[in-house]
Amino acid sequence: MKKYCMVNEIKPERLQEYIDAHLNPWDELLHCLKDAGTKEETIFILDNKALVFVECEDMEIYLEKFGRSEVGKKWLEFVADFIAVSPFADETGKAVDNADGLRKVFDLNQQLAGKFEEH
């Protein structure tokens, strides 16, 4: 499994709606994320930035599978107006060239084991 981190800028006036949507996700969305290949996904909020951590085999495949699914399309349409900037996927959920996310430079367990991987 690879680990990815992305930062999405949320419109300040829609931030609480974005948070509420993630605190109370649709059950079908949770299953869709798993079916698309996500082992783990965690979101943290800092000001109006959403720090999204995803663990999956391949981010591009994950984003494409999620974006093609009916639930994924419905979710992307629902949250589209909350997000001011998402540099990692287009409006359909298709990965863009920099879908690898932020560059990882430290991983405690990997470095203790002498096997650091950027994902």
Automatic annotation (TrEMBL):
Keywords carried by this UniProt record: Isomerase
Xref: InterPro entries: Dimeric_a/b-barrel (IPR011008), Rham/fucose_mutarotase (IPR008000)
EC number: 5.1.3.32
Keyword Cell inner membrane (UniProt): no
Keyword Isomerase set for record: yes
One Gene Ontology molecular-function label: L-rhamnose mutarotase activity
Pfam families: rhaM
Gene3D superfamilies reported for this sequence: 3.30.70.100
Leading EC class: isomerase
SUPFAM superfamilies assigned to the protein according to its UniProt record, in alphabetical order: Dimeric alpha+beta barrel
Protein name: L-rhamnose mutarotase
Organism of provenance: Christensenella tenuis
